[in-house]
Specification:
- The protein is built from three helices and five strands.
- It is an alpha+beta fold.
- The longest helix is centred in the middle third of the chain and has 36 residues.
């Protein structure tokens, strides 16, 4: 499925490059490019929705994220990095370790204690810029 996304994304990028390359003073050419871009974006939305349905079914059937945990963590931008946790109880910093099967984010405090973050905001703003 990932190869399909890449192909659709590449088509979308090509359409946008074509749009930027021409001054598109010709209304017909502009309409063609706009329609092509709209079709590519629609195809991408359909593919994303289809993949979401597959992943959601896995989540519902397992009643947890256990079947998705490894994939999720492989894409977790902050994994193994220092993060700011802006929790209802107050702000603190730690290292993002990954997630639990219930979706809680695991963050190790500086004292070594691992906290499950289920509410609040986790960010690297102020540490590394934006991720």
């Amino acid at each position: 499925m990932e190869e399909q996304y890449k192909k659709t994304f590449d088509q979308m990028v090509d359409s946008l490059k074509m749009y930027q390359r021409y001054e598109l003073k010709d209304k017909n050419r502009k309409d063609i490019v706009n329609k092509t871009a709209a079709r590519v974006f629609q195809a991408l939305r359909i593919e994303v929705n289809q993949e979401f349905e597959v992943l959601y079914e896995q989540f519902v059937s397992a009643e947890s994220l256990k079947n998705l945990k490894a994939e999720y963590e492989s894409r977790l931008a902050n994994k193994d990095n220092r993060v700011n946790v802006l929790a209802p109880s107050g702000a603190w910093q730690g290292i993002c370790l990954g997630i639990k099967e219930d979706g809680a984010l695991l963050v190790q405090r500086e004292d070594g204690k691992v906290e499950e973050v289920i509410a609040g905001e986790v960010s690297v703003r102020g540490i590394y810029g934006y991720v």
